[in-house]
Amino acid sequence: MSKEEFFDVAVIGSGPGGYVAAIKAAQKGKNVVLIEKEFLGGTCLNCGCIPTKTLIANAQMLEKLSKASSFGIHIASMTFDYKKMKERKDGIVKNIRKSLEGLLKSNGITILMGAAKFTSPNTLKVVGESSCVIRADAIIIATGSTTLDIKAFPCDHKTILNSTSILEMSELPKSLTIIGGGYIGCEFASLYAELGVKVTIVEALDKIISAQGPSLSKFLTQTFQKKGIQIKTGITVTKVNTGANGATITLSDGSSLESDKVLVSIGRKLVTEGLDLQKAGIAPNDKGMIEVNEKMQTSVPGIYAIGDVTGKAMLAHVASHQGIVAAVNATGGEALMHYHAIPAVIFTSPEIAMVGMTLEEAEKRQLPAKVGMFPFQALGKAQATGDIEGFAQVVVSPTTGEILGAQVIGHDASSLIGQMALAIQNELTLECITETIHAHPTMSEGWLEAALIAQETPIHFPPKLKKSR
Ligand SMILES: Cc1cc2nc3c(=O)[nH]c(=O)nc-3n(C[C@H](O)[C@H](O)[C@H](O)COP(=O)(O)OP(=O)(O)OC[C@H]3O[C@@H](n4cnc5c(N)ncnc54)[C@H](O)[C@@H]3O)c2cc1C
Predict the structure, then answer these.
(1) N or C end of the chain: which has fewer CB within 10 A?
(2) Fold assignment, 160-266
(3) Tell me, what's the pLDDT at 214?
(4) Which pLDDT score is estimated for 47?
């Protein structure tokens, strides 16, 4: 490629925000360049969603096999090889990365490997394998986020790890202390506890997954405690000393813990460093976010921002949808971003998934709301497969019947939540759910039964006891 090139649309960063935006812009007939400084696929593919869920799949398989005898299947002895699990994970990431490259090329997108920075609002300098200068009518910033260190004891990636370096571990530690009980910390806790590691979570707030509301937090706390995960809340780590035998972790109450490894999982840093945003006329806000309107436009015409770097909801599917909205607007169309029906999943065992409002959120907003909750224990399919743990719950308006939110805990909650995302996005009511014929026997019947309970007409659940006169 020559030293200076013109493109209709330039996208910086190839995570689930950037690569989806690039494909959408290419579909609109535009000449698109996608610039990536590290690995195609960004955090999600290389050190986020995909590698973690691949390792979690190993733990799920092990958990299922451990129940084999109750299905009449006898496994004489069962062992596992974590090194092979890690190699499988690396292979899957590599394969998807290769497929992604092919997909981008099949859409006629130019891929440049290098770090991009602004030299003006419509020019970028790319430094790296494909050094050059780019001019573009529209630029989409999709630079994502990265791991965050604790200054007092930064990660050494040997004993003190972050969510990226822990994925490079080839041997399991005997014990692991996780600093931070958010969704990423809890997914790692569940994964490693299932693989037999002694896990402790230290969380500064008064509960784990506090962003997901008190009832889900309480459920996960109880589940984790049953699995032997130790949870310390309302306390911080003040010091970590590392040595040949692992780490000594000092807590704010003066007590200490010993652990082979420490995982720091305290949130993410948004990536704007090195972009020379001031040359584009953009200043991130005091939280480091690039502010955008609902068209994903920044304050500078022709420059858009999407994904984690906007600090909205730091999830891959949100980044992708924002990417579609930005690409449509950047190519002469009209699209608006919405955030009221975003499904979120915590891939613990059991899985937790939610969309829209919890009952507590509805109450906080002073919206009248009621719930219908159906335990999976009462479902034929759950009994058949042995996945009886958990429930499906809908939060509805008692006046209009509109579904305001839904939560599901249990086997394959991550797939089940899709039905409720569709319902909330399209303002469906309880009646729409009860009028929909759900296949039998399936876990999705949990939604039908939860909706029937909310309507006070349960079929597979005893009716509410009438008060005696
Ligand atoms: C351990 C973990 C597990 C997760 N699990 C899930 C999950 O199960 N589901 C889910 O929805 N989300 C999950 N996430 C969050 C998800 O990964 C992010 O929300 C998502 O990747 C954000 O996408 P993005 O496109 O904004 O940025 P990113 O995926 O972070 O990609 C940004 C890309 O931009 C590149 N870049 C940065 N600066 C430049 C530059 N100057 N020039 C060129 N390239 C640049 C980076 O190298 C990177 O490749 C997880 C995250 C972590 C850390």
Answers:
(1) C
(2) FAD/NAD(P)-binding domain (3.50.50)
(3) 85
(4) 98
Angle at 219 between CA 194 and CA 229, to 5 degrees: 35
The confidence score (pLDDT) of residue 466 equals 64
| CATH topology match: 4-146+270-330 vs 344-454 | no
- Per-domain residue ranges for the chain? 4-146+270-330, 160-266, 344-454
Q: Which token pair is 460?
A: 């597979």
Give the angle subtended at the CA of 11 by the CAs of 9 and 17, to the nearest 5°.
125
Cα maximum dimension of the chain: 88
- State the alpha helices, DSSP H only, in 144-230: 183-194, 214-226
Return the sign of the alpha-carbon dihedral for residues 245, 246, 250, 251: negative
Catalytic residues: 440
The pair of three-digit structure tokens given for residue 50, joined into one six-digit string: 């995909």
Q: Which atom of ligand 1 is nearest to the CA of 40?
A: 49
Centre of ligand 1 to C-alpha 147, Å, is 10
pLDDT value of position 185: 98
Residues of the chain with confidence (pLDDT) below 70 = 1-2, 465-469
CB 317, CB 16: distance < 8 Å: yes
Pocket test for ligand 1, best of 34, 119, 143, 414 (most atoms within 8 A of CB): 143
Q: Of the residues 24, 43, 317, which should be mutated to test ligand 1's pocket, given the most ligand atoms within 8 Å of the CB?
A: 43
Which CATH number is 344-454 given? 3.30.390.30
What pTM does this model have? 0.96
For domain 4-146+270-330, give the CATH superfamily.
FAD/NAD(P)-binding domain (3.50.50.60)
Q: What is the pLDDT of residue 468?
A: 55
Containing 450, the helix (H) or strand (E) segment is helix 445-454
